[in-house]
Amino acid sequence: MIYLQLIYEYFKIGLFSFGGGYATLPFLYHISATHHWYSAKQLSDMLAVASITPGPVGVNVATYSGFTTGGILGAIMSTASIILPSFIIVIIVAKLLAKFRENKYVKASIHALKPAGCGLLAAVAIQLFRENVVQIWAYILFFALLIMSIKIKKDPLVYLGLSAFVGLILSFLKVI
Amino acid sequence: MQKTFWNIYKTFFKIGALLLGGGYVILPLLQSEISEKKCWTTMDEIVEYYALSQSLPGVIAANISIFIGHKLLGIRGAVAAITGIITPAFLAIILIANILEELVGKHTVQSVFSSVAVGVVILVILTIKEMWSRSITDTFTKIIFITTLILALIKVPPAWLIIGSILIGILYGTKNPEEAE
Question: Which residue positions in chain B have pLDDT lower than 70?
Fold first, then answer.
């Protein structure tokens, strides 16, 4: 029974959350309130953990709550359920796109869709900046990395590794 | 590198393992792994898939992986890409699920959380730069960008913005057919 509930709830998130990442949050809080698979506190811990564990936040929370309520099988069920709607929809869209790429309406939509996508991401960047770049050390790290990114183009791994390393050092120096 | 099921799985596994701070950093990772190192797709295609992925329901990183997997090797490629991107996330959560509370309580872990978050902001900015250079080409696209940004900041749901921009794109494109090329 619990498996069916997990499948139902996460399939719903996969199907109805637009805009990725933070768009899944209201759904995740709703689940915590109705099913008690995790508490609101656990969810906020989970979101913090999701930032250092690999993978999209929504998928991480799905796996976690599936695992805590239904073990490995629950984890597989809920992870697969959040992905399945995407899989079906994207395959359909990809096939249609391949077929109608030269269509003038499709071209016109994509022409406008790309700057809109860029605008949405810019809003995410501003939100992330406000949340994460608060203290002085964070500003210094931010601008140091920014200057680095202008001067030299590096693998994204370098930025992640470097900032994790700085966090570790600052923690030992008791700065943060 | 050949576009086999196993190679696609391995490539996306690597990207999945590096996908820290939520799914937003997937674009720079795809740029470096799929476009620059392996030359499997062009950066323009990746940007286009990214924009489409934002406009479809579900997790963006998953959507774009399925798009690229499908482009590389059809349905099998899509399965390889999505399972590849999910495996590291799945394993990581299973491994730490039982020690979640302890882990979050650790001071060092929290410091690393907050500094990686700063790195993630940089990667998102680099992503925007990349998307900007490939999608903002004229006054029309500039207006779309600025309008979407402002409306998104005042919390208009992304789905509306996407639908709105598609409609405006079609209206504009039918009036100025040569511009939408």
Answer: 177-181
Give pTM, 2 decimals: 0.89
Q: Are residues B118 and B150 in the same domain?
A: no
Identify the burial level of A39 via C-beta atoms within 10 angstroms of its C-beta, where 0-12 means exposed, 13-18 middle and 19 or more buried: exposed
**pLDDT computed for residue B178 by the predictor:** 64
Q: Which of A17, A44, A57, A59 to mutate to test the interface with B (most CBs of B within 10 A)?
A: A59
SS (H, E, C) A5-31: HHHHHHHHHHHHCECCHHHHHHHHHHH
Interval A60-96: pLDDT, tens: 888 988 998 899 999 999 999 999 999 999 999 999 9
According to the model, what pLDDT value does residue A174 have?
82
Considering the domain architecture, whether residues A113 and A142 belong to the same structural domain is answered as no
C-alpha A152/C-alpha A145 separation (Å) is 10
**Contact residues on chain A for B112, CB-CB shorter than 8 A:** 52, 164, 167-168, 171
Q: How many domains does chain B have?
A: 2
| One domain, residues B27 and B101 | yes
Write out chain B residues lying below 8 Å of A54, CB-based.
16-20, 88-89, 92
Same domain, B101 and B121: yes
Structural domain of B109: 5-133
